[in-house]
Amino acid sequence: ESSPETIATTHGSSETSVATADELPARIDVLVLNCGLWDIRRFPGKTSCFVALDVYEANLGKVLELSRQAVIETGKVLWVTTTPVDDATHNGIQQCFGRFEADNRDFAAAAARACGENGVDILDLHGFTAALGGSQELFRDHVHFHRNVCDAQGVFLGKAIRGRLEGRSGMRALRSCSAALQRSLATVAMSAA
Length: 193
Description:
This protein is mainly alpha-helical. The protein has helices at about 15-20, 55-70, 85-95, 100-120, 125-130, 135-140, 145-165, 170-190; strands at about 30-35, 70-80, 120-125. The chain contains eight helices and three strands.
């Protein structure tokens, strides 16, 4: 039994994710997805988000459908909710565009609908992260988290992913790479914007 390969990447908005979904590797055991922070950006002089809510939901439907086709029969597609946005912190530091938690909630509801329609489990990273503390405890800048928060997020996601895969073939290999997976997820959480 071969060990699963861990690939960690960020692609930007849901539109970019749709464009790159057909470039997925031939064999995928577990595919963990998220997009949203890039989609909810609001640029000065614009009245809507970078990607309209209905377009976002349609994009996710396409991405999730392609993803489900790409995973092996015993594989799993998992959706991770977008992390919290603190309006005052984000928009006080980031001047090029705004982000708002109200948009984040609307896009999360759209993602939940798309996941429900495609039979994709949701890992609630938003709720987990929000429970860790207030803005000062969480954020090292407008959207990136302090190292201890990233580490906690990595452990949470690693355990949540393992929990969704218990009893499936390949679990032995997943257990052996779980520490690397958690480090990889923490690194992605630190670097994603």
